[in-house]
Amino acid sequence: MEQVDRTGKKVGMWLFLYTEMMLFGGLFVIYANYHHRYIEEFANGGAALNLMVGSLNTVLLLASSFTVAASISALRKGTRKIALAFLGASISMGLLFLVNKYFEWGEKFAHGIYPGSTELGEGPHGLTVFYGLYYTITGLHGLHVVIGLGLLTVCSALIWSGRIHQSNDIVLENSGLYWHLVDLIWIFIFPLFYLVA
């Protein structure tokens, strides 16, 4: 009975992740359509983004995916403290990702580059579209990072209290799947915006 319940929870999580992929997939199709129309403006917009910050955020999310997987593996081996340490590392890298994104957005806002700004309104329409998609997609992704960090934090508390343990790790596994999705989505976002030039 327990195995059936575990399988049901995993299937439910995969179905939820599928809907998330459809959401971002639709946004990527919209991006592709507008990129085709405004190739030069998208290239100019991408060139104005901070490639160093985008690259650092990519490394952070890739590394955090590894530490989440390592945490699940450690818990299954019965090493609770190591599992908590790996989860702590994942949470720290996720927070650093958000801090980097905050400063990156802040720099753009300081230069008057945000939806509805006079700066963008007076420029080429394609550039307005580029930044509209940039803020929408990276903002939605950032929200998913916040949710993922919440899930990992709850998992840490449950491991600490003993409610998640070696033979009951489905909550951690599903939270790890969600975090991997967050990472996967960024793997698409990074080249679409930062390498478009």
Q: What are the main properties of this structure?
A:
Four Helix Bundle (Hemerythrin (Met), subunit A), 7 helices, 197 residues
Description:
The protein is an all-alpha fold and 197 residues long. The chain has a single domain (2-194), classed as Four Helix Bundle (Hemerythrin (Met), subunit A), CATH 1.20.120.80. The chain has 7 helices and no strands. Helix 1 packs antiparallel against helix 6 and helix 3 (51-76) runs antiparallel to helix 7. The model has no long low-confidence stretch (mean pLDDT 94).
Mean pLDDT: 94
State the helix count.
7
Taken in chain order, the helices and strands follow as HHHHHHH
Give the second-level CATH assignment, the architecture: Up-down Bundle
CATH fold category name: Four Helix Bundle (Hemerythrin (Met), subunit A)
Contiguous runs where pLDDT drops below 50 for at least 5 residues: none
CATH superfamily: Cytochrome c oxidase, subunit III, four-helix bundle
Share of β-strand residues? under 5%
Query: What class do helices, strands and sheet pairing give?
Result: mainly alpha
Note the overall shape: elongated
Structural Rg? 19 Å
Characterize the main sheet: none
User: How many individual β-strands?
Assistant: 0
- Alpha-carbon distance between the two ends: 54 Å
